[in-house]
Amino acid sequence: MLPVPFRIIAHRGASGYAPENTMAAFRAARHMGVQEIETDVHFTRDGELILLHDHNLERTTNGMGSPAAQSLAELRCLDAGSWMGPQFAGESLITLAELLATFTDEFTYHVELKDRTPGIGVATARVVQMYGRTADVLLSGFDCDAELLAAKAAAPGLRSTVLLSPKRDTAEAILRTAAAGHDGISLYVEVITREWVRAAHDAGLEVRCWGIRTRQDMERGARSGCNGMTINWPDWLQQWVAKTGTVTKTGTVCSQPSTGDSGMDTCR
Ligand code: G3P
Ligand code: CA
Fold it and tell me: From the CB of 38, is ligand 1 less than 6 Å away?
């Protein structure tokens, strides 16, 4: 069974096909019919929220150093597309506000607090509120519980997902995440099992899977019974669901009856 809704989340946009965290990547996700995207936020020097994964600019732009050392105006001048191919030359870094203003209700947004500077949770929540998207955003982060909880307190209705490093104790993290009042947990694909997913569901948490690099990873994650996954190639997952699942009249997505022990042969 694939829980409903099963979240096919374009990771940093459809970043397997267009430069991550740029408009091109989010437009590519929309073009594929994907309804959920993931992105990462960092503070700029002047307190704006820019979408960038790494803690420095070198890998995905022609800039250098930390985004926190530059103003938004300076960061906007950088080329964030050419590293992936000449056809993306001129793609620029964008802000969370621009993302929300552009795509409004076309996506559910999974926003990771990649920068853990104190105050980034509340700052992110304020931008989400300003654009009226509180119900459509799930904040997430590794080891930043205080920021996630502060954001939820600032914007009631905002949901949070704790991202778990494979180095952490999964059992303890599930209990701690539920007790803290988060809405979900995201487990690394090499850690996730049906048993961990069941334990998290029993604790009242939605479960996501992260770290997919291959189609085998994707299938392992999807067969765990989790509620969705971030993936750079969302079309792989769309194809897998189309091949192995069925959509009922009520919109339920479930796998075809199986004689194996996948635990995925019923809908609910
Ligand atoms: O879905 C979580 C995932 O985005 C975490 O990994 O490296 O892309 O931030 P990373
Ligand atoms: Ca991320």
Answer: yes
Per-residue pLDDT tens for 161-197?
999 999 999 999 999 999 999 999 999 999 999 999 9
Is the CB of 210 within 6 Å of ligand 1?
Answer: yes
Point out the catalytic residue in the list 11, 42, 110, 182. 11
User: Tell me: the pLDDT tens digits for 19-62?
Assistant: 999 999 999 999 999 999 999 999 999 999 999 999 999 999 99
Q: Which of 31, 42, 53, 110 is the catalytic position?
A: 53
DSSP-assigned letters across all residues of the chain:
---SS-EEEEETTTTTTS-TTSHHHHHHHHHTT--EEEEEEEE-TTS-EEE-SSSSSTTTSS--S-GGGS-HHHHHTS-SSGGG-GGGTT----BHHHHHHHHGGG-EEEEEE-S--TTHHHHHHHHHHHTT-GGGEEEEEES-HHHHHHHHHHSTT-EEEEE--TTS-HHHHHHHHHHHT-SEEEEETTT--HHHHHHHHHTT-EEEEE---SHHHHHHHHTTT-SEEEES-HHHHHHHHHHHEEE-TT--EEEPP-SSS-S-S---
The answer on pLDDT for 221 being more than 80 is yes
Is the CB–ligand 1 distance for residue 186 below 6 Å?
A: yes
Q: Class assignment of domain 7-255?
A: alpha beta
Distance 249 CA to ligand 2 centre (A): 34
Concerning whether 11 is annotated as a catalytic residue, the answer is yes
Ranges of each domain in the chain = 7-255
* pTM, rounded to two decimals: 0.92
